[in-house]
Design a protein that fits this description.
20% helix, 5 helices, alpha+beta, 270 residues, 2 domains, Alpha-Beta Plaits
Length: 270
Protein backbone atom coordinates (compact mmCIF):
# COMPACT_ATOMS: atom_id res chain seq x y z
CA UNK A 1 0.00 0.00 0.00
CA UNK A 2 1.15 3.55 -0.78
CA UNK A 3 0.07 6.40 1.47
CA UNK A 4 -1.07 9.78 0.19
CA UNK A 5 -2.01 12.93 2.09
CA UNK A 6 -4.81 14.94 0.48
CA UNK A 7 -5.00 18.69 1.18
CA UNK A 8 -8.54 20.05 0.89
CA UNK A 9 -10.91 22.83 1.94
CA UNK A 10 -14.66 22.88 2.35
CA UNK A 11 -17.61 25.09 3.15
CA UNK A 12 -19.34 23.09 5.87
CA UNK A 13 -22.77 24.74 5.69
CA UNK A 14 -24.38 21.75 3.95
CA UNK A 15 -22.64 19.00 5.93
CA UNK A 16 -22.70 17.39 9.36
CA UNK A 17 -18.97 17.81 9.75
CA UNK A 18 -16.08 15.64 8.54
CA UNK A 19 -16.75 12.27 10.16
CA UNK A 20 -19.03 9.73 8.50
CA UNK A 21 -22.36 9.27 10.32
CA UNK A 22 -25.51 7.34 9.53
CA UNK A 23 -28.39 9.12 7.77
CA UNK A 24 -26.57 12.47 7.41
CA UNK A 25 -24.18 13.82 4.79
CA UNK A 26 -20.53 14.31 5.77
CA UNK A 27 -17.31 15.25 4.00
CA UNK A 28 -15.68 11.89 4.74
CA UNK A 29 -18.56 9.98 3.18
CA UNK A 30 -18.41 12.07 0.01
CA UNK A 31 -14.67 11.46 -0.47
CA UNK A 32 -14.92 7.75 0.25
CA UNK A 33 -17.71 7.35 -2.31
CA UNK A 34 -15.90 9.38 -4.99
CA UNK A 35 -12.62 7.52 -4.47
CA UNK A 36 -14.40 4.17 -4.71
CA UNK A 37 -15.89 5.29 -8.02
CA UNK A 38 -12.42 6.13 -9.34
CA UNK A 39 -10.47 3.10 -8.06
CA UNK A 40 -13.24 0.46 -7.87
CA UNK A 41 -12.37 -0.58 -4.31
CA UNK A 42 -13.07 0.86 -0.88
CA UNK A 43 -10.60 3.51 0.31
CA UNK A 44 -11.00 4.69 3.91
CA UNK A 45 -10.24 8.40 4.40
CA UNK A 46 -8.68 9.17 7.79
CA UNK A 47 -8.89 12.87 8.62
CA UNK A 48 -6.81 15.23 10.73
CA UNK A 49 -9.74 15.73 13.11
CA UNK A 50 -13.46 16.23 13.43
CA UNK A 51 -15.36 19.38 12.63
CA UNK A 52 -18.87 20.08 13.91
CA UNK A 53 -21.89 20.35 11.66
CA UNK A 54 -21.80 23.63 9.76
CA UNK A 55 -18.13 24.32 10.55
CA UNK A 56 -15.75 25.10 7.68
CA UNK A 57 -12.18 24.11 6.86
CA UNK A 58 -9.88 26.45 4.97
CA UNK A 59 -7.16 23.81 5.33
CA UNK A 60 -7.76 20.13 6.06
CA UNK A 61 -5.73 16.96 5.48
CA UNK A 62 -6.71 13.31 5.33
CA UNK A 63 -4.72 10.28 4.31
CA UNK A 64 -5.53 7.29 2.11
CA UNK A 65 -3.76 4.07 1.14
CA UNK A 66 -3.67 3.06 -2.53
CA UNK A 67 -2.67 -0.29 -3.97
CA UNK A 68 -0.46 1.31 -6.62
CA UNK A 69 1.20 4.63 -7.49
CA UNK A 70 -1.11 7.20 -9.01
CA UNK A 71 -1.19 7.04 -12.79
CA UNK A 72 -3.86 9.71 -13.28
CA UNK A 73 -4.38 13.34 -12.33
CA UNK A 74 -6.46 12.51 -9.29
CA UNK A 75 -6.68 16.14 -8.17
CA UNK A 76 -8.31 17.14 -11.45
CA UNK A 77 -10.64 14.13 -11.43
CA UNK A 78 -11.81 14.69 -7.86
CA UNK A 79 -12.38 18.40 -8.34
CA UNK A 80 -14.59 17.60 -11.33
CA UNK A 81 -16.56 15.04 -9.31
CA UNK A 82 -16.88 16.89 -6.01
CA UNK A 83 -19.62 19.41 -5.11
CA UNK A 84 -18.73 23.06 -5.61
CA UNK A 85 -18.29 23.61 -1.86
CA UNK A 86 -15.38 21.13 -1.56
CA UNK A 87 -11.93 21.64 -3.14
CA UNK A 88 -8.79 19.52 -3.47
CA UNK A 89 -5.55 21.53 -3.45
CA UNK A 90 -2.76 18.95 -3.24
CA UNK A 91 -2.23 15.19 -3.29
CA UNK A 92 1.10 14.29 -1.70
CA UNK A 93 2.83 10.90 -1.85
CA UNK A 94 4.25 10.02 1.56
CA UNK A 95 7.07 7.76 2.67
CA UNK A 96 6.17 5.28 5.38
CA UNK A 97 2.86 5.53 7.21
CA UNK A 98 2.43 9.05 8.64
CA UNK A 99 -1.01 9.66 10.16
CA UNK A 100 -3.13 12.71 9.29
CA UNK A 101 -4.55 12.99 12.81
CA UNK A 102 -1.91 11.67 15.18
CA UNK A 103 1.12 13.28 13.52
CA UNK A 104 -0.34 16.80 13.41
CA UNK A 105 1.76 19.04 15.67
CA UNK A 106 -0.38 22.16 15.63
CA UNK A 107 -3.85 23.29 14.64
CA UNK A 108 -5.18 26.82 14.13
CA UNK A 109 -8.83 27.81 14.09
CA UNK A 110 -10.31 31.20 13.18
CA UNK A 111 -13.74 32.37 14.31
CA UNK A 112 -15.41 35.24 12.43
CA UNK A 113 -18.22 37.48 13.69
CA UNK A 114 -20.16 40.29 12.03
CA UNK A 115 -22.27 42.65 14.14
CA UNK A 116 -24.26 44.23 11.30
CA UNK A 117 -26.58 41.85 9.46
CA UNK A 118 -25.06 40.97 6.10
CA UNK A 119 -26.83 38.45 3.81
CA UNK A 120 -23.69 37.87 1.73
CA UNK A 121 -21.69 36.32 4.57
CA UNK A 122 -24.56 34.83 6.58
CA UNK A 123 -23.28 31.26 6.05
CA UNK A 124 -19.61 32.21 6.42
CA UNK A 125 -19.56 34.29 9.60
CA UNK A 126 -21.67 34.41 12.77
CA UNK A 127 -24.03 37.32 13.34
CA UNK A 128 -24.14 38.73 16.88
CA UNK A 129 -25.57 42.05 18.04
CA UNK A 130 -22.83 43.30 20.37
CA UNK A 131 -23.75 46.81 21.39
CA UNK A 132 -21.07 48.56 23.45
CA UNK A 133 -19.03 45.38 23.90
CA UNK A 134 -15.91 45.89 26.02
CA UNK A 135 -13.05 44.61 23.89
CA UNK A 136 -10.51 45.30 26.63
CA UNK A 137 -12.24 42.82 28.92
CA UNK A 138 -12.26 40.25 26.13
CA UNK A 139 -8.55 40.79 25.60
CA UNK A 140 -7.90 40.40 29.33
CA UNK A 141 -9.65 37.05 29.32
CA UNK A 142 -7.80 35.93 26.20
CA UNK A 143 -4.43 36.58 27.84
CA UNK A 144 -5.40 34.18 30.62
CA UNK A 145 -6.13 31.19 28.38
CA UNK A 146 -2.54 30.11 27.48
CA UNK A 147 -1.67 30.06 31.21
CA UNK A 148 -3.75 26.89 31.59
CA UNK A 149 -3.45 23.43 30.07
CA UNK A 150 -6.54 21.59 31.35
CA UNK A 151 -9.68 22.69 29.50
CA UNK A 152 -12.16 20.28 31.03
CA UNK A 153 -14.38 23.23 31.98
CA UNK A 154 -14.85 24.18 28.34
CA UNK A 155 -15.46 20.78 26.73
CA UNK A 156 -18.86 19.47 25.68
CA UNK A 157 -17.98 15.83 26.43
CA UNK A 158 -14.93 15.81 28.74
CA UNK A 159 -15.36 12.20 29.89
CA UNK A 160 -15.11 10.92 26.32
CA UNK A 161 -11.54 12.18 25.99
CA UNK A 162 -8.48 10.29 27.25
CA UNK A 163 -7.52 13.58 28.88
CA UNK A 164 -8.53 17.23 28.62
CA UNK A 165 -5.01 18.64 28.37
CA UNK A 166 -4.33 21.07 25.49
CA UNK A 167 -1.15 23.07 24.97
CA UNK A 168 -2.63 26.33 23.73
CA UNK A 169 0.16 28.24 22.04
CA UNK A 170 -1.70 31.48 21.37
CA UNK A 171 -5.10 33.17 21.32
CA UNK A 172 -5.55 36.38 19.35
CA UNK A 173 -8.40 38.84 18.92
CA UNK A 174 -8.83 41.17 15.94
CA UNK A 175 -11.38 43.69 14.76
CA UNK A 176 -11.75 45.96 11.72
CA UNK A 177 -11.67 49.74 11.70
CA UNK A 178 -15.44 50.04 12.22
CA UNK A 179 -15.39 47.35 14.92
CA UNK A 180 -18.28 45.55 13.22
CA UNK A 181 -16.18 42.54 12.12
CA UNK A 182 -14.42 40.46 14.77
CA UNK A 183 -11.99 37.57 14.50
CA UNK A 184 -10.69 35.18 17.14
CA UNK A 185 -7.71 32.93 16.39
CA UNK A 186 -6.69 29.89 18.44
CA UNK A 187 -3.55 27.77 18.00
CA UNK A 188 -2.92 24.59 19.96
CA UNK A 189 -1.59 21.06 19.60
CA UNK A 190 -5.20 19.84 19.89
CA UNK A 191 -8.71 20.97 20.80
CA UNK A 192 -11.51 19.26 22.70
CA UNK A 193 -15.08 18.70 21.56
CA UNK A 194 -16.71 22.11 20.95
CA UNK A 195 -13.95 23.80 23.01
CA UNK A 196 -13.50 26.80 20.73
CA UNK A 197 -17.21 27.47 20.32
CA UNK A 198 -17.69 27.33 24.09
CA UNK A 199 -14.76 29.69 24.73
CA UNK A 200 -15.93 32.16 22.07
CA UNK A 201 -19.40 32.25 23.64
CA UNK A 202 -17.83 32.90 27.06
CA UNK A 203 -15.67 35.68 25.61
CA UNK A 204 -18.74 37.34 24.11
CA UNK A 205 -20.46 37.08 27.49
CA UNK A 206 -17.45 38.80 29.06
CA UNK A 207 -17.55 41.56 26.46
CA UNK A 208 -21.26 42.20 27.06
CA UNK A 209 -21.01 42.13 30.87
CA UNK A 210 -22.79 38.79 31.41
CA UNK A 211 -19.68 37.08 32.75
CA UNK A 212 -16.68 38.49 34.59
CA UNK A 213 -13.05 37.75 33.73
CA UNK A 214 -12.66 36.43 37.28
CA UNK A 215 -15.51 33.95 36.82
CA UNK A 216 -14.02 32.84 33.51
CA UNK A 217 -10.66 32.13 35.12
CA UNK A 218 -12.36 30.41 38.06
CA UNK A 219 -13.80 27.79 35.70
CA UNK A 220 -10.39 27.21 34.11
CA UNK A 221 -8.43 27.14 37.34
CA UNK A 222 -10.79 24.78 39.15
CA UNK A 223 -11.70 22.66 36.10
CA UNK A 224 -15.31 23.43 36.99
CA UNK A 225 -17.83 22.97 34.22
CA UNK A 226 -20.21 25.96 34.08
CA UNK A 227 -23.91 25.32 34.54
CA UNK A 228 -24.49 26.46 30.97
CA UNK A 229 -21.82 25.75 28.35
CA UNK A 230 -23.55 27.36 25.38
CA UNK A 231 -21.92 27.13 21.97
CA UNK A 232 -21.18 29.97 19.58
CA UNK A 233 -22.79 29.50 16.17
CA UNK A 234 -20.97 26.96 13.94
CA UNK A 235 -20.81 28.97 10.71
CA UNK A 236 -18.21 31.40 12.05
CA UNK A 237 -15.65 28.68 12.77
CA UNK A 238 -12.87 27.62 10.39
CA UNK A 239 -10.12 25.07 10.74
CA UNK A 240 -7.53 27.21 9.00
CA UNK A 241 -4.06 25.65 9.47
CA UNK A 242 -2.61 22.19 10.15
CA UNK A 243 1.12 21.77 10.69
CA UNK A 244 3.05 18.50 10.49
CA UNK A 245 6.76 17.77 10.95
CA UNK A 246 6.80 16.78 7.28
CA UNK A 247 4.16 19.16 5.80
CA UNK A 248 3.79 22.88 6.41
CA UNK A 249 1.75 24.32 3.58
CA UNK A 250 0.68 27.96 3.69
CA UNK A 251 -3.14 28.09 3.89
CA UNK A 252 -5.13 29.48 0.98
CA UNK A 253 -5.80 32.65 2.95
CA UNK A 254 -7.50 34.28 -0.01
CA UNK A 255 -10.54 32.35 1.18
CA UNK A 256 -10.90 34.94 3.91
CA UNK A 257 -10.78 37.98 1.61
CA UNK A 258 -14.57 38.12 1.44
CA UNK A 259 -14.47 39.40 5.03
CA UNK A 260 -11.97 42.13 4.19
CA UNK A 261 -13.78 43.93 1.36
CA UNK A 262 -10.56 43.95 -0.65
CA UNK A 263 -8.71 46.03 1.95
CA UNK A 264 -5.18 45.38 3.14
CA UNK A 265 -4.44 45.72 6.85
CA UNK A 266 -8.12 45.05 7.45
CA UNK A 267 -7.60 43.36 10.82
CA UNK A 268 -6.24 45.19 13.85
CA UNK A 269 -5.13 43.06 16.77
CA UNK A 270 -6.52 44.17 20.10
Amino acid sequence: MIRYFIHIAYNGANYRGWQRQSKVLTIQEIFEKKLEQVFKYEIPCLGCGRTDAGVHAAQYFFHINLKNDLQTDLKFILNKMLPKDISVFDIIRMEGEPHAQFDAMERTYDYFIHTIKDPFIADLSSFYLLENADFNKIKKAILIIPNYTDFRAFCKTPDRHNNTICNVKSVKFFYNQNKDRLRFQFTSNKFLKSMIRIIVYKLLEIGTGKLSVEEFEHFLKNKEIPQFNNLAYPQGLYLSKITYPFINIVPRTEMFTIFQNGKENFWQEV
